[in-house]
Amino acid sequence: MRTTTAALWLGVAACAHAPPDAARTDDCFDASGVLGWDDAGPNSVLLRVRGRREFVADLQGPQCSDVAWATAIGVTSSTGSPWVCVGEGVGLGQIQFRDGPLGSGGRLITCRVDAIRPGP
Fold this sequence. Notes:
The protein is mostly beta strands.
């Protein structure tokens, strides 16, 4: 398992928005609560979030088919809320993958998140 190495890089203010309805919280996670990740195959990444939960994010982008090289990720939501929920549809956020510390000049790619589903 890989862990996110820079909490500030996540760039989402969790306190700015209330969590989703209680009925949906099992299907949602706060983007700033991603604790680790693994490559889940072509165009997919397994996210480990607070509460010992896992979600699979389906990715789109020209360099998103293989992200095993990355050493850190940053997750952001595009919904106006830091909460990312299963079934919200295309354009619900993005994940940036990088190798090396911020500002080191290493490789950095951005992938659009097209779907989120519960993990295995």
